[in-house]
Every structure is written in structure tokens, then in C-alpha cells.
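Blinded run. Sample ID left blank on purpose so nobody reads anything into the name before looking at the predicted structure. Input follows.
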Amino acid sequence: MVRTLLYRTAEWHALAKLRLHTESTLNHLEKLTTELGLLMRKFRDVTKSDFATHELPRETAARKRRSKGKETEGTSNPAGTSRKPKTLNLFTYKWHALADYVRSIRLFGGTDGFSTQLVGTSHKLVTYLLIIL
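Blinded prediction complete.
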């Protein structure tokens, strides 16, 4: 499963970074994006019971600092001293944005041909175009 996931991820990355796309490469990228999502969800579901993963020490320390700050504000919420269990989180913008790659390529061309950086007042035009689309 890991080998397949790594291969599909590399294949998706190679297709997404092509400088010149055709309709067939974009269709393949769309299908591959769907397959990659299915593979990642399967990987998450299979591995979450096989491996006990916990937050990093720096995450534990940050949680303790936040909790300590809340306690000084008047709420009594004691921070746990142990590390909390964590699972693979696929509900992040990175994973959500994969589905928009093909549409973006169809609208703007290959990902090497445009920038999301705002330049002067031209960002207003881009904002209006994105709202209309």
C-alpha cells in the first residue's frame, strides 16, 4: 500500500508540474487526483489502528502554554501532562486544494506560467475574475 501511495503521489506531482498540458493529460490528472484521495483515506483508515501516534513534544509544550494562559484568565482547565494521540488529518487546505489543480490549469495554464503574488492594483481585477468564475 505504501509503495502504491508513493508511486501515485510522484505520478500526480509529475503531471501537475508539466509545462504543457493536453486534454488527455488533464483528464488523467483528474482521475489520478480522485485515486490519490481514495488511497490516502484508505492509508489513514488502515494505519490508524496499527500505529499509535502522538503529538510532538513541541506540540505538547505549546498546548500546556495555551492552557496555562487560560488558567490565568480565570478559567480552571488543567493541562494534561501526557502527549495526546493524533491521527493523519486529511481535512487540511493542502488536501482540499488538490481538486482545484486541473481547473486552475485549464483557466491559467501550467503552474509554472503564473504567480499568485499580488502586483500593484492589478490584484483587484484578478479578485473580480475569481469571484465571477
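Unblinding after everyone has recorded impressions. The mean pLDDT is 82.
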